[in-house]
Every structure is written in C-alpha cells, then in structure tokens.
Amino acid sequence: MATDAEPGRRRRCCAQDTPDAPKIPDSRGDSDGPRRGSLCDRHCAAINNVHGDLGDLGCHLHRPRVPPAMSTPSCCQQHSEEVCESCVVKTTLTAENAVEANKLSNNYKFGFKKWKSHVTARPWEDRSEIVKELYSDLNVIRASGGSTLTCGNVLYLLLFGWWLSLLYIFMAAVMFITVMGVPYGQLCWDLAGYFLWPFGKVIQKVEVPKSHQAREAGVEESSALLGGPTPLRWHPRCWVGTGYWHRASSAVWLCLGYPVLALAHGLVCVTAWLLIVLIPVAKLSARATSRVLLLPPERVLVRRLRMTEVPLEGEVILCCYRAANPYYYKYAVDGINVFAVNLLPLVLVTLVLGYVDSPNHLTGSAVKFSLALLSIMPLSYYIGMAIASISAQSNFAVGAVVNATFGSITELTFYITALIKGSREGNRCYAEVVKSALTGTLVGCVLFVPGLCMVIGGIRHQEQRFNSRSAGVSSALLFLSVGGVFAPTLFSKVYGKLVCGECHNVTQNPLGHYLCHNCHFDLMDNNGTLYYSHVQPLVYTVSILLPAAYLIGLFFTLKTHTHIYDIHISDCHMPGHHHSAVVHWSRWRALVILLLSTLCMSACADLATEHISPILTNSTISQYFIGVTVLAMVPELPEIVNGIQFALQNNLSLSIEIGNCIAVQVCMLQIPILVLFTIFYPTNFTLVFSDLHVYASMFSVVLMNYIFMDGKCDYFQGTVLVMVYFILLAVYFFAPSPSGC
C-alpha cells in the first residue's frame, strides 16, 4: 500500500498463488496439479510484473523489463527452485531522490539505524491534502468552510478567546482615553470581536483607492511602523489626516497598546504550540502580532464571511476556520517532528536547574531525575536523525562507522556515568542497576517492541508478513549473543561457592531445615582464585568473540548475502517531475548536531545518576524494576515510535529488525565496551547476572524465535509477546532488591 513515506512500495509473495501473479499455462498439459517448476514460473513472472506495474508511473527498477513470453524460460534458467522457494517477500521502494534512496536502503541493512522520517524535503505536489493543510498559511478563503461550531473551536473560546477579547476591549478604552490613539482604539474594538470567535471571519489589508492616491499625491507622509510614503486615511475610523497626528498616534500605540497585546499573543502562541493540536491558534496569534497589529489601523478591515459575498480587493492576512487539527502530530519543523521540537527546551531547563541548583533548594532529587530522564528522549531523536542524515549522504563505509560509533551512545553514556559514580561512592547498587537496565533493554526489545508493533499493525492489517530469512539472521546472532553474555554467569553457578548472609533454623533441630537470606555465589573465595583465574579470563574471551561475531554478521548480510533482503529501489519519481535532493540537514550540520546532542546526553546522564541515589535508597519499589522499565525503555521511545509507524505501513520487517538490532547491539557491542571500560577504570561491574536476569532473557529469546518461525503474524501473536513482557515486569516488581542495595 502506498504511503507518504514510501509511496511506491509494493510487496509480492510467491509462497502462495495470488490474484496479482499471472498464471502460466503448462504447455505439456499435465493434470497432476502445479509442479515446483510452475511455482517458479509464476514467481518469476510476478517479479517481471512488478516492473510492469511501476512502468505506468515512469519509474525504472534496477532489473530490466523482460517480455512475459520470454520471461518463463530465461528466469527459471537463472533461478533455481531453491531460490524461488526462499524468496518469500519482494519489496520495491520508490524514492524521490538519491539521498532518500540511500536512507531507505540503509533501513534494510543490518547494523544501521532504522529511521522513518524523511531526511530530505518532500515535493509539495506529492503531499496529501491533510498534510498540505498543516503547512498552509491562515490566509485562504474557502468556498465552503462548513460549520464553525466544533469542539476545537469551543475549546479555543474557553482557553483563550474570552480573555483575549476582554483584553482588547480594555486596550480600546485606554486608546480612547489618550485621544491621540483613537484610531487604534477603534481597531482594538473590532479585533475584540474577532478574537472572541475568529472562525468564519477574515482580516484583510485594504488597498487605498486610486482616487485618494491622486488627491493625496502631494502629501507624502511617512509611516512610523512601515516606513516609506503613506497616503492620507480614507477609512471611516480615520478622522485626522496630518502626518504629525499619525506619528503621535503610532507612538502612543507602540508604547501602551502593542507591547501588552504582543505579550498576550506570545503566551497564547507558546501554549497552543505546546498543545500541538492547537497549532492553528499559535499561527493565528503569531500572524496577528507580526502583521495585523503593526499595520496602520485604516489599512485593516475585519468582517464576517458570507457565502454570496464577493471578497474585497486586498491581501487576506487572516482567515481561520478550525482551531484544532488532530493530524498535527505529523507536523515537522526543518525535518524535526513537533514533539522533539517541544521537548528541546526541556533539555535546557534540566541542565540549568541541575547544575545551578546543586543544593536542591528549588526542587528535589526526584524532580531532577525525572527531568533528566525525559530530556534523554528528544536527544535520542536528534542523535538518530543526525545518524540517518549522515549515512544517507555518505558512502557505505562512513555510514557503517557512524552507526557503530554513535548507534549505542545514548545507553552507553548513562551506563558509564552510573558505573563511575558507583565506583567513587563504593556502592554496588549502581552496577546492579546497570545490569538491570541492560536486561530490561534486551527483554523489552525482544518482546515489547515487536509485540506492540504487531498489535498496532494488526489493527489495520489482518495478517502481516515479514522476511523470515533476515529475521533469522538476527535471531541467530541473538541466540549467540545471549549465550555468550550469560556464559560467565552459568560458569559461576557451577563452580562458585554459595554464601548466605543470614540463616535461621526453622525446625529447631540441628539437622532440620534452614531459612537463609541474601544468598549469592562467592567468586572471591581463597583470595579470588576462582574469579581471577577462571571467570575473568572467560569474561575477556567472550568480550572479544561477541564483537567479532557482530562483524561477521555485518559482512554476511551486507556483503556476501545481500540478496536475503531483496530490496529494489526505483531511481526516479512520478512522470513529469524531476526533484533534486534538498536535505534538511547537511553532513556538517548533522555532525555538529550529533556532537552537541551527545554532549548534552552526557550531561543529562550525569544528572540522572547524580539524583538516582535517593530514589534507590528511599523507594519501596525494587531496584530491579526501576532498571528494567524506566532506565531501559525511556531512551528507546524514539525507536518504538519508528517501529509503530513502520508496522502501520504494513512493513513489519523493519519493526522486528528495530528490536532485534537493539538487542544484538546490547549484547555484542554495549556489554563488551563496558567490560573494556572496567579494564581502564576499575568499577564494581562484573559480567555475572542474577538468576532472574538469566531466565527472563533466555525465555524471551526462545519465545521470540518461536513466534517468528513462519514469517507471518497477527495481532494475537503480538498480544502474547506483550502479555509475557508485562508478566516479567510483575515478577521484577515483586522481586526483592539486589543484595547489598
């Protein structure tokens, strides 16, 4: 199904006979049913038919078109039956330009960040009418605007309209009292009625009639607001016509009236913008402040629109019909989603409040911790946007380096700052929180992210298919990584010595049952011989093998077996339109934003770890639960949103790959980097996890692989994954805190 993000996307399934696939008659007249060769014939004909479908759009695939009569023998000579059976899903993508094509191609590459938003400006004619309305100025008079009595308009009246109208009435009275500001007082009186209910009304900049221009040709007065020659007033409210009086009236208005109204409209603009659905009100206030209130009063005409009325000649400044639009969640500013724009000031507030109010005089640690954690979300978005922009505008090597270097920077920044703080304070809780966050990210990306995408995507699509071979590569790497990460833990369980903090005899019999608390496997027995001679070398060996396996996976999927993904990207756009790439962020701009976002991320992570200690100490909730939920999933919210958007477009392959790639990077990149960091900066972090982490991670990986075996899913399977995730969260919630915390 074509969408705004991928307008030319098509899928072809060869595992079953579909109405779109042309049926090739068997020349031998066999009646024993379809043979394996006929399945290959229909598959190859369907591939060639994909080009035929897109040929009407003027797009040319990288595969040359072959006539149907010739495609059957030639295709089956080139493709064996095994290839025809293994290729389940064919995907064709249409991109507006080469940069966008690189971004779409990178989405299907293992190890690259999957990014939904465009990195280039989309052609205006290709936008839907809903999106065009979002970006249109409020100066278009419609033939039929419909009823203006809507819930959004009533909400505007309750939130802004009534007090804005009263403020304009008050300013009108002030202007009348000054005598010299009478023209502006009349303007405020007219605008009071307009801003009480602006819907279905219009504000125009009226042109001066030629007769007045000829009569006033020798006057040549200068406007204090606009500058340049201005004719004498002809509007009925303008009862004086001397240049001195006009300058005095403008001075009174600029000193007494305009600042107050500009401040009020600024408050309305900020409030409406933060509410997002009321962005039309923000545009209304901004345009009124910058245009209407700076015009001479005789040039402003406020009137109500009527169906049979012929509009006057002149520029339409404001014409609004709706105060709210629920589709403004799609709105973007310079390629940045409006949610990320609105959360950016939160980062500045967090940094100022965190470092200026160190003694916690203004706010407590809980507030600062919450603000620091929320600030990570927009910074994660900016880092993702910068990585996608650089990768789309660079070659493969640069894109791979940028994704490998900054792909996990959000999580690593928080983990390293937490380990440093725990080492300085001698507190083992920070290391346990980091382990909980690592496990929470792994479990959440394996269960919650694909499960949620399946549920939401299944609401729109009854059954969704995905590339089982590409998912199988990620699953195999996930099995390998989980086994490698938890190998030292299993080793310590087998050879470690069980030590308990406190034991009580339940039966009062020396040979009876004992109830013990705070039990753990001691690896430091006999001066740490077991740990330093056996466990630590195993940890270092695993930390070397896991990144090596990750590199082999990259080489396998990106070099030797690229046909697994089978992605075809057309190299042109709609007929009659040729569009050059207009990127939102150039490579240097994206690099600067990436570095600044990383720096701010480090500061926010430092504040979060600085103020998490009182929460861990005073909270009745288990530290396990805090780590696997808040600290693990909040930084991944931008990725979850991308996965949901892909699922809604029936592109579940990318939704699954988002979760799998993050989980693989946690085990194969993030954990080895933390182990490497502990070599140069000794901390309390050891690669030995609790039993709960081991069982939850392994069960999640096994369940995920079972669900993804057949290459198709529905909302029921997604519900199973989500429910299992919530069950594990309940286990973590009721679990006791780690020993030593």
Automatic annotation (TrEMBL):
Q: Does the keyword rRNA-binding apply?
A: no
This entry's Gene Ontology molecular function terms read: calcium:proton antiporter activity
| InterPro entries, per the entry | CaH_exchang, NaCa_Exmemb, NCX_ion-bd_dom_sf, YccF
Q: Does the keyword section mention Transmembrane helix?
A: yes
Which Gene3D superfamilies does this entry report, sorted A to Z? NCX, central ion-binding region (1.20.1420.30)
Comp. bias intervals (Basic and acidic residues): 23-35
Sodium/calcium exchanger membrane region domain span:
368-487, 590-732
Q: Disordered: where is this region?
A: 1-35
Q: Where is the Inner membrane component domain?
A: 151-201
This chain's protein is named VNX1 protein
